[in-house]
Amino acid sequence: MKAAVFSDTHGCVALMLEAVRRSRPDVIIHLGDYARDTAEITAEFPEIPLYSVSGNCDIGSAAPMRDTVPLGAVKAFICHGHEYNVRCGIDRLVYAAMEEGCRIAMFGHTHEAIYETLGGVTVINPGTAGKGRTLTWACLTVFDSGAVDCRILDL
């Protein structure tokens, strides 16, 4: 299963849409800050399942603050990250993922891409797809065995 993961689009959707066109993912995940940008994804790619959460800039959004999503053989915990104080470290996020039985934890908020494993949990931040010096996204592959591979790609 291949997932296209974006965060912090801040109203800039053109590059995100192009990445989805090129990568042809099985699922799309948007980790907040301008969750409303997902309306354009849904309009152009109605056949691709979309999971989205609210960020600190999504006041009044109907999207949840956090969610767990099935990704093939594993579950992923998704959130924007501000509620877990991720700018000061990712331990709280990893513990939240563990409590939900998730092997993957995804977040945004910091605008800095990461891909690492902590306490047996694969942690992914796709960076920012909307505002910043470097615009990035994550192409995540979950194999039938449950193995995970992630590439952080420039937009």
Number of strand segments: 10
- What is the chain-wise order of helices and strands? EHEHEEEHEEEEE
> What's the overall average pLDDT, rounded?
95
Rg computed from alpha carbons, rounded to a whole number of angstroms: 14 Å
Instruction: Please describe the biggest sheet, giving its number of strands, its sense, and whether it closes into a barrel.
Output: 5 strands, mixed
Helix amount, in percent? 10-25%
Model regions low in confidence, pLDDT < 50 over at least 5 residues: none
Main-sheet strand order equals 3-2-1-9-10
Oligomeric description of these chains: single chain
Structural class: alpha/beta
Tell me the overall shape.
Answer: globular
Could you explain how this protein is built, in words?
The protein has 155 residues and is an alpha/beta fold. It is 17% helix and 33% strand. The protein is built from three helices and ten strands. The protein has a five-stranded mixed β-sheet, covered by helices on one side. The chain is globular and about 35 Å long. The two termini are 21 Å apart. The model has no long low-confidence stretch (mean pLDDT 95).
